[in-house]
């Protein structure tokens, strides 16, 4: 490791830690060029590229990192997640399976495999994966929330609520857990609990765009159009992903109608 590489690596690591993503990508690209044999530099660059949203570049870089360190779980999880995000589900499954082949008790890997099955609407296989994860790590918040999601999708609402509450008992400051509970309570008509949990999620993570969307719907059902408008406007301000395009259009139409109504 030469001095130039060491300095670049440390600067890039700090930039990524400080969420200066574009800067991290630039510096870590130079670090990798200075020392192409460093799997750790490739890993950090791949992570920075994922954060930047350049997923295919991340996949290419992490693929190189995997060749340098084929048993490195951090690299494998990042690569699997990037492939999953890029809708390369079979490739993602292969990577997660590699982790399980190395350690069949890795709960996070079982959950990751389950998430791929869940995404493909293979609910029974997803359920089985989450149950395996929890056998290996009974207090996995990741597994419990995922289990709740598949129970919810399968119509087992009471079981899903139980799973979400178990996850929150382990990590009461998890905004996703509160949001999960808010969603199911909203869908089952318990608006009071849904609003409480939604606001808790937003207290913990004020940038949680979809929590604003659910809160807006709750406020509409509670006949509070001003509060609904504020929540929907926050959703539109925070949510910019291409995947949410159809929802964004729908919310924009609702916002326009509420503004006319409140004139």
Which descriptors apply to this entry?
mainly alpha; 79% helix; Serine Threonine Protein Phosphatase 5, Tetratricopeptide repeat; 263 residues
Task: Note down, in words, how this protein is organized.
By secondary structure, this protein is mostly helical. The protein has a domain of 95 residues: Tetratricopeptide repeat domain (Serine Threonine Protein Phosphatase 5, Tetratricopeptide repeat), CATH 1.25.40. It has 15 helices and no strands. The chain starts with a helix and ends with a helix.
Secondary structure: elements and pairs:
Blueprint: H1 3-17, H2 21-34, H3 39-52, H4 55-68, H5 73-85, H6 89-102, H7 107-119, H8 123-136, H9 141-153, H10 157-170, H11 175-187, H12 191-204, H13 209-221, H14 225-238, H15 245-261
Helix pairs in contact: 1-2, 1-3, 2-3, 3-4, 3-5, 4-5, 5-6, 6-7, 7-8, 7-9, 8-9, 9-10, 9-11, 10-11, 11-12, 12-13, 13-14, 14-15
């Amino acid at each position: 490791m030469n001095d130039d590489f060491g300095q670049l690596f440390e600067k890039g690591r700090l930039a990524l830690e400080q969420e200066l993503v574009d800067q991290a990508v630039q510096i870590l690209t130079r670090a990798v060029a200075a020392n192409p044999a460093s799997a750790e530099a490739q890993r950090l660059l791949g992570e920075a590229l994922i954060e930047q949203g350049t997923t295919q570049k991340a996949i290419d870089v992490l693929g190189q990192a995997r060749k340098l360190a084929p048993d490195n779980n951090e690299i494998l999880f990042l690569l699997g997640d990037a492939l999953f995000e890029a809708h390369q589900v079979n490739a993602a499954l292969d990577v997660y399976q590699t982790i399980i082949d190395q350690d069949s008790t890795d709960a996070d890997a079982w959950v990751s495999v389950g998430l791929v099955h869940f995404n493909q609407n293979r609910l029974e296989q997803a359920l089985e994966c989450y149950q395996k994860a929890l056998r290996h790590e009974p207090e996995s918040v990741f597994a419990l929330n995922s289990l709740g999601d598949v129970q919810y999708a399968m119509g087992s609402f009471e079981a899903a609520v139980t799973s979400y509450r178990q996850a929150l008992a382990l990590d009461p400051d998890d905004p996703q857990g509160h949001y999960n509970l808010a969603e199911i309570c909203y869908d089952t008509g318990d608006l009071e609990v849904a609003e409480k949990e939604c606001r808790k999620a937003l207290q913990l993570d004020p940038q949680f765009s979809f929590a604003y969307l659910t809160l807006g719907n709750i406020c509409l059902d509670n006949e509070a159009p001003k509060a609904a408008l504020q929540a929907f406007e926050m959703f539109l301000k925070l949510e910019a992903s291409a995947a949410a395009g159809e929802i964004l259009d729908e919310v924009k139409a609702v916002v326009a109608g509420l503004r006319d109504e409140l004139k």
